[in-house]
Design brief:
Length: 139
């Protein structure tokens, strides 16, 4: 301990790590979903899984989807060809952690790939109430 003090090493760094076992008091599956409907209305939901809960309106189905997908859907690979079909002004973020991994995903409906990506995330993300140009109902 004297050597640590002489070197100016902080002794308190290890204390918080030892205070509680890894993962105690926290869920590895906590996500904050923020949705901008494109018309100035923001909605925010907390989604907790294992067990499903939080303020998300369909937590059970949203958690089941994330489990099937292995977590939130990531962006299309660089260079992917996408249609330029505009799906609407909606935007969303999903932040937090899934299975101990950090999540910071952004979603929009700016082209065909992004609109399809949004759809794959339903019911984590809501189905927009606008027509998306695909010939089907807005979603």
């Amino acid at each position: 301990m004297t050597a640590a003090l002489a070197l100016g090493l902080p002794l308190t760094v290890a204390a918080p790590a030892l205070a509680c076992p890894p993962g105690a008091g926290e869920s590895p599956d906590v996500l904050r979903v923020t949705v901008d409907d494109g018309g100035g209305h923001l909605s925010e939901y907390d989604l907790r899984c294992d067990p499903a809960g939080g303020t998300h309106p369909d937590a059970t189905e949203a958690c089941a989807l994330l489990e099937r997908l292995g977590g939130p859907v990531g962006p299309e690979p660089e260079g992917t060809m996408c249609t330029m079909i505009y799906g609407g002004p909606q935007r969303a973020t999903v932040r937090g952690s899934w299975r101990g991994r950090p999540v910071d995903a952004r979603y929009d409906r700016s082209n065909g790939c992004e609109t399809a990506r949004w759809r794959r995330m339903a019911p984590v993300l809501p189905a927009p109430a606008v027509h998306d140009g695909s010939g089907g109902p807005g979603a």
